[in-house]
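pls design
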């Protein structure tokens, strides 16, 4: 009985989770051609809602997300490839609209700079501790040893 209730609750939660993301795309936005609609959905999953910022435009109910979904579908109907659609959206809204940023030199510098700074800091610490080491004291000469003994009263 308890296992059956747990399974039912899990199934209900899964259905609600799937329904929540499916509700964002309205029926009037959908394309009649299933292949184009599938491409539009795939592209929409990679585009960030500029209002929500942590959701794809497929998951968001914001007006801007709706406008972006319609824009993607218009570009697909016009005959653009997936890359052309993404390039067009990025040219209008910037790279921030991509949920997964493209790899380029600027992004590599952005992600690599903290690592480089940590390495530079480590090298600086190692070099500065090496230069601060005191040299080993030189042995006393016979005269110095005699003067020391005299002061100590030996």
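designed seq:
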């Amino acid at each position: 009985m308890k296992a059956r209730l747990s399974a039912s609750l899990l199934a209900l939660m899964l259905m609600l989770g799937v329904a929540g993301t499916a509700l964002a795309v309205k029926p009037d936005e959908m394309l009649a051609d299933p292949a184009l609609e599938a491409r539009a959905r795939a592209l929409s999953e990679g585009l960030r809602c500029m209002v929500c910022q942590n959701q794809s435009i497929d998951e968001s109910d914001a007006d801007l997300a709706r406008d972006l979904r319609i824009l993607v579908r218009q570009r697909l109907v016009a005959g653009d490839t997936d890359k052309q659609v993404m390039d067009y959206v990025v040219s209008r809204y910037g790279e921030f609209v991509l949920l997964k940023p493209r790899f380029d030199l600027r992004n590599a510098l952005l992600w690599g700079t903290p690592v480089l700074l940590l390495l530079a800091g480590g090298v600086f610490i190692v070099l500065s501790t090496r230069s601060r080491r005191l040299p080993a004291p030189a042995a006393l000469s016979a005269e110095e040893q005699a003067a020391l003994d005299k002061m100590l009263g030996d």
